[in-house]
Amino acid sequence: MTQIKLPESVVDVSVFVDGLGFIGVVDKDGIKFPEIEEIKETVKAGGFEQDYGTGVFKKLEFEIVIKEINKVIYTSMATGLANGNGVNFTIKGSTVQGGEKMPFVATIQSKPSISLNAAETTIKGTATVFIYEYNGEELCSFDTKNMIAKIGGVDYLETLRSHIQ
Hints:
By secondary structure, the protein is mainly beta. The protein is built from 2 helices and 13 strands; from the N terminus they run ββββββαβββββββα. Strand 12 (148-151) and strand 13 (154-155) form a beta hairpin.
């Protein structure tokens, strides 16, 4: 008999800022990690229209909705904007499936924007660094300043970097 696999749910998500610490908790619907998508170009040739990868990835846009208003968020923004380096966020949580919890850690570096809505703080922007680890294994690592785009251990920009360095 085939056993039905239950869907994974995200639980216990906390957000931290490097150098300042904990800034709040996030509901599972309050986090949108960057979408990893290569820009395609459509070419018409040979009687067909086809899409080809350009080797360029779309912007790494993210959004985090924290369930509180916290002074540390504003302090981190002020510091990150003043020094030009942006803010380093670490998002830690778990997924649960069939009673088993698996940890995840996401690291995002950005110069984000902040907005308030009642007792929530929304942080959104475009990441210059995005690293996602699941159960201790790095699934993806993007660093726009150093031209790194690793997915499943494969660096898709390695050849490009070797051509221009």
